[in-house]
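User: Write out your own:

AI:
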Amino acid sequence: MKIGFIGAGKVGFSLGMFFAQGGIPVTGYYSRHPGSAQEAAQMTGTKWYESLGALVRASDALFLTVPDGAISSVFQQLREFDLTGKQICHCSGAMTAREAFPGVEETGADHYSIHPLFPISDKYAAWRELPGAFFCLEGHGPHLSWWEDTLGALGATVRRIPSQGKVAYHAACAIASNLVCALVKESVDLLAGCGFSQQEALSALAPLMRANLEHLIQDGPRDALTGPVERGDTATVAKHLACLPKGGSRQLYRAASRRLVQLAEEKHPDIAYHPMKELLEEGSRT
């Protein structure tokens, strides 16, 4: 299995290093930015390809590690070549293989989405952490088991999901990762009003966030839940709402807290949370 990369950004660079260091043959890189492809090829000990056709002919599997919005257009360029028996892969979390590669069945190529559930922010470091990452597999062809076994042998945790579950899977990833940034930004802004700089706020919040994350991972959201919503402390929650700016911040607090009430009810079925629910309704005075 010889793997070629179209696109030499953070994802292509990191996966190429991950595969090459794991002993998986990588043919090399093609990119509209030759400098990026040359650097990635040098780092992985592979080849920089000046033409897309040359990379296609040299590779059994082709990873389109380009922005999501460019995957389909790059695939249309690939259709100019003989793709019979090859694997066409992308790393988008939200798109299925068929969605990303329209008409792929006509080419004779197998098609897969292989998504590393990992924040690849630094291409020079992220590949070292991919052995501990989770990979989601989806697609059509006889190689799903091969990818499952190969990625597992490289240290990753691998799970196949049905095509119809791809969007829900990616939404789950975004909520657990990206939306947390919005919540932390709200916390930092509130502490700024108390005289904290951003770094001081993050330093103060860090032990709380780390401890809470550990409990979430170990015990699950319900058992990790603490705070005024769980206690049914409507007076404190009302004060919180009053100190938040009207609009987005207050709506965000209400929406998240309503979900916490559901967790609290599961955790404490003997406690009546009706007053808390009424307080958190959008039409309440606070």
